[in-house]
Write a structure and sequence with these properties.
There is one protein chain. The chain has about 140 residues and is an alpha+beta fold. It has one domain. Helix content is about 50%, strand content about 20%. The chain contains two helices and four strands; from the N terminus they run αββββα. The chain has helices at about 1-35, 105-140, and strands at about 50-60, 65-75, 80-85, 95-100. The strands form two sheets. The chain has a two-stranded antiparallel sheet. Strand 1 and strand 2 form a beta hairpin. Helix 1 (about 1-35) runs antiparallel to helix 2 (about 105-140). Its main location: other.
Length: about 140
């Protein structure tokens, strides 16, 4: 019985680490979407650069299990979008304005993927709770 309860706790802790990582991923994606149309505050300057979350696995010694964590958030090195808008205050000397390298379609796809992974972790926690409840119900009878 002791191993069963620790397995339940490990399942919940592992799923919780997934929830934390996906929540962090969604925060980065929402930051990218929020800045999709921003420009540099200075003429000819660089605008917001898209951020890309990474994940890493780590051994949790108290659980004796691998858990996921949100790793470094790296800047996307792809080129900025450039539009010719000479009247824009952020335009350079040739009239071009740099816009962030954020593609809303890519961000929404990533958001949907993060949401599905988040929901899968929530389902793991719910299933584990149901199993614990069923076990307690069996022990009561």
């Amino acid at each position: 019985m002791a191993n069963d309860s620790s397995d339940f706790a490990r399942s919940m802790a592992i799923a919780t680490s997934g929830l934390r990582a996906q929540a962090g991923r969604m925060r980065v994606i929402s930051e990218n979407i929020a800045n999709a149309d921003s420009t540099s505050p200075t003429a000819g300057g660089d605008p917001y650069r898209r951020k890309v979350p990474t994940f890493s696995s780590a051994l949790d010694r108290t659980l004796d299990a691998q858990v996921v964590t949100l790793g470094k958030i790296k800047p996307d090195q792809s080129n900025f979008r450039v539009k010719y808008e000479p009247s824009n205050p952020a335009a350079d000397a040739s009239g071009n304005v740099k816009y962030p390298n954020v593609n809303s379609v890519v961000e929404m796809t990533d958001m949907r993927d993060a949401q599905r992974s988040y929901e899968a972790n929530v389902n793991i926690i719910s299933a584990t709770r149901r199993m614990i409840q069923r076990t307690l119900d069996i022990l009561k009878t």
